[in-house]
Amino acid sequence: MGWKNNGYPGKENDSVILFYSAHNNRAAEIVEQQLAEFKTVRCRSFEAMDRRLRKPRHGLEVVLVMAVHLQEMVFVEEIQGLLRDLRLVLILPDRDAKMVAQAHKLSPRFIAYADQSLDQIGAVMKRMMGTKRLGFSDPTKVLAESAY
């Protein structure tokens, strides 16, 4: 069962994922399903994400940004100081050269593409959050993907 909260997520030692997606599309639904077993804070606007990142961390470890437009990537770059000490994961709509170049400026731990299978997001989150996935037999696949 998923744990959702837009405020303060639990105890300070609980691991939390902040998930930004301003769009309610099929890809966002798939990602939310992948995050169902984690404590997740969903932000649907830049302002909400900015406000949450300015609050005490309370276990916040990973920021997952599903960007559809280049402007969203520019916003993430503008608040990059707030992402310090957090692991950043980006989901881009496709392999558009401008979006990919902007994404790499942010030094994310992993980049996924919404026009491909999003199944890997769950595996990446499990690795980052320190949990083991039943049936996940080849962790090198995740590591190899994150190098790109």
Give a verbal description of the structure:
- This protein has 148 residues and is an alpha/beta fold.
- The protein has a single domain, classed as Rossmann fold, CATH 3.40.50.
- The protein has helices at 26-34, 46-54, 70-78, 97-105, 119-129, 139-146; strands spanning 3-4, 16-20, 39-43, 60-66, 87-92, 110-113.
- Strands 1-3-2-4-5-6 form a six-stranded parallel beta sheet, with helices on both faces.
- Strand 4, helix 3 (70-78) and strand 5 (87-92) form a beta-alpha-beta unit.
- Helix 3 packs parallel to helix 4 (97-105).
- The relative contact order is 0.16.
- Residues 1-13 and 132-148 have low confidence and may be disordered.
Spatially, the strands of the biggest sheet line up as: 1-3-2-4-5-6
How can the largest sheet be summarized?
A: 6 strands, parallel
> Per the principal axes of the C-alpha atoms, what is the gross shape?
globular
Query: At the first level of CATH, what is the class?
Result: Alpha Beta
Mean pLDDT: 82
